[in-house]
């Protein structure tokens, strides 16, 4: 069988490769921006695909908290300067949802990846520890911020309160709260490692 010769152009030179404009191998600088953005997009799409569980469920939980505490305590809450108990309660419920979901997004991603065995998808790409940390933390901050915004609008509407006088400061506090809880990402990774140890399962029995 004769070898197949590449087709030549009219000038006698081989035709250009369809991907000749792309440089191979791709050079990566000090920071793999493409990898970090891809990881961030993957984590955001992961919780947006189940928005009913990740965004709506925390809001329903906070509404139940508000109803229970309002009925149980109501006007019996003796606060300083005569502050209404509901006004005192709403900011705490908002920040509680922000912190819980910001941490849950990252820790659940690590735990599920280790349990399902696809954590190699995080370890194989050319991403350093700092880049992995930043991508996961940014996605967790995004989820916490989204949940905080939805919770704030819902609780303010139900309680009949007005928007905060300093809205910019309130939004900054939501972002800082999400950022602060991301320092505990290592705890989620440690829990994921403990779950694989047989002795851990024996203590649960």
Strand content: under 5%
Give a count of the beta strands, DSSP E runs of length 2 or more. Answer: 0
> End-to-end distance, in Å?
69 Å
Poorly predicted runs are: 198-205
Radius of gyration (CA) equals: 25 Å
Tally of contiguous helical segments = 8
Kindly state the mean pLDDT as a whole number? 76
Oligomer: single chain
Helix content: 55-70%
**Secondary-structure content class:** mainly alpha
Helix/strand order, N-terminal first:
HHHHHHHH
The rough form would be described as elongated
Largest sheet data: none
Pick out its properties.
about 200 residues, mainly alpha, about 65% helix, disordered C terminus
Brief digest:
This protein has helices at 33-48, 51-72, 85-116, 120-123, 129-159, 167-181, 185-194, 198-204.
Describe this structure in words.
- The protein is 67% helix and 0% strand.
- It has 205 residues and is mainly α.
- It starts with 32 loop residues before the first helix and ends with a helix.
Map the helices and strands:
Elements (H helix, E strand, L loop, with lengths): L32 H16 L2 H22 L12 H32 L3 H4 L5 H31 L7 H15 L3 H10 L3 H7 L1
């Amino acid at each position: 069988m004769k070898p197949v010769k590449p087709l030549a152009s009219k000038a006698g030179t081989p035709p250009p490769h369809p991907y000749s404009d792309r440089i191979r191998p791709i050079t990566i600088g000090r920071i793999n921006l493409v990898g970090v953005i891809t990881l961030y997009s993957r984590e955001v799409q992961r919780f947006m695909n189940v928005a009913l569980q990740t965004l709506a469920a925390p809001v329903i939980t906070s509404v139940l908290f508000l109803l229970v505490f309002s009925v149980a305590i109501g006007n019996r809450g003796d606060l300083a300067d005569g502050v209404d108990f509901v006004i005192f309660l709403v900011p705490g419920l908002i920040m509680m949802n922000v912190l819980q979901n910001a941490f849950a997004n990252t820790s659940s991603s690590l735990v599920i990846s280790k349990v399902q065995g696809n954590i190699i998808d995080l370890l194989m790409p050319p991403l350093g520890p700092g880049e992995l940390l930043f991508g996961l933390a940014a996605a967790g901050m995004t989820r916490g911020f989204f949940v905080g915004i939805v919770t704030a609008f819902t609780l303010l509407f139900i309680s009949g309160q007005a928007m905060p006088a300093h809205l910019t400061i309130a939004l900054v506090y939501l972002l800082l709260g999400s950022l602060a809880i991301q320092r505990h990402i290592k705890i989620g990774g440690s829990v994921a490692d403990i779950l694989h140890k047989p002795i851990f399962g024996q203590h649960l029995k």
